[in-house]
């Protein structure tokens, strides 16, 4: 679990460092994740990470039942209704801060707390997701690294910046993408998450696109 946590910390810090340079106009730029602006998309990433403390505070279930890849299975968790709730949560959270910089300070506090709490847990720790799935904490952390990595690309693309994807996050994401290069780069990650089209050769490799909200 330590390698995944290290990737989580590095990718979260990389996003934090990049976002610290955003102008107030850039915070209000639209993103491909409609209807979110840059600011609201960071609010979504913050919400996605903020589930961790409550998950760790709850009693652990006896065993894990799904993997990180199975977390992204196409069921009710990615339905129109659930996606609408996801959109509203992010927008409501972002609206609670007067500036993008203030939201960023909150995001930084949240991910650092999550990192600290997770490091106190054993590798065998099982948690329950908000969708009711028992999963190893180490596997759930893979999904949080993906959130940081993929939405980091969305944020960078929205304001015309070079991606800040870290090599350690790319290594973690590789576990979720059968047929991908040994270390997916930003371009490949866009393709594997439906943000850019796959070539015929890439489709022939059997690359499975993840179901994302």
UniProtKB/TrEMBL annotation:
Signal peptide start and end residues: none
Domain Mycothiol-dependent maleylpyruvate isomerase metal-binding per the UniProt entry, residue ranges: 8-156
A GO MF label: metal ion binding
One Pfam family it belongs to: MDMPI_N
Protein name: TIGR03083 family protein
Organism annotation: Paractinoplanes atraurantiacus
